[in-house]
Amino acid sequence: MSLVTGKLIVFEGIDGSGKTTQANLLANYLKTQNIPFEVINFPRYEENLYGKLVRRYLEGEFGSLKDVNPYLAALVYAGDRALAKDLIANWLNEGKIVIANRYVSSSKAHLGANLKDEEKQKFIDWIEQLEYQTNKIPKEDLTIFLKVEPKVGQQNALDRNRPDIHEENLEHEVKTNRIYQELAAGPTWYTINCMENGQMKAPEHIHQELIDILNDRFSN
């Protein structure tokens, strides 16, 4: 992997799946390998008006999940990412590995979970058009899906902080996880099963699986 530059690597998964932990472990690894990198976390709650609006949505200010139209919510998340597109593009052009904690697929999965099955694919297609064609944000080179059982992920999220309107709803996490598994069939996705015997694997174990994937994917 030492010769790989200018790649956008995204971590996805339900709430409490360990995305932040794995993003940080990957950053530490790249540092030890003297590979230039940057880390960006979405949503960027405090950096712009879109991010601040996302926080208000997640705190329930605009109602429950069923009260907010997924298309309108998607515009806010997309606005936050659109404001970061030049920053990300510049990093990639500089040859850096960009690690994104959540990206476009978070909107597909979390917001698509609020729709009926027959409406989900239309919504996913619309998000791709909005983000990649209209807003022209950089496309992912690789997406890592951290797969955990929804009950376990939810408990991890509840133990960490006060739950938002996504985290407090187990049914939502189950539906979100189902969409993630469907998305993970894509050619630029890899799935890491983070569970073993009903428990979360050690973060270092998951990290090593990730490094093996990256070496397999990007070795010249």
Keywords:
alpha/beta, 7 strands, 52% helix, 220 residues, globular, Rossmann fold
Give a structural overview.
With 220 residues, the protein is an alpha/beta fold. It has one domain: Rossmann fold (3-Layer(aba) Sandwich). The chain contains nine helices and seven strands; from the N terminus they run E-H-E-H-H-H-E-H-H-E-H-H-E-E-E-H. It has helices spanning 19-32, 49-58, 70-83, 85-93, 104-112, 117-134, 150-160, 170-183, 203-218; strands spanning 8-12, 37-41, 97-101, 142-147, 189-193, 195-196, 199-200. Strands 2-3-1-4-5 form a five-stranded parallel beta sheet, with helices on both faces. Strands 6-7 form a two-stranded antiparallel ribbon. Helix 3 runs antiparallel to helix 5 (104-112) and helix 3 packs parallel to helix 6 (117-134). The longest helix has 18 residues, at 117-134. It is globular, with a radius of gyration of 17 Å. The N and C termini lie close together (8 Å). The model has no long low-confidence stretch (mean pLDDT 94).
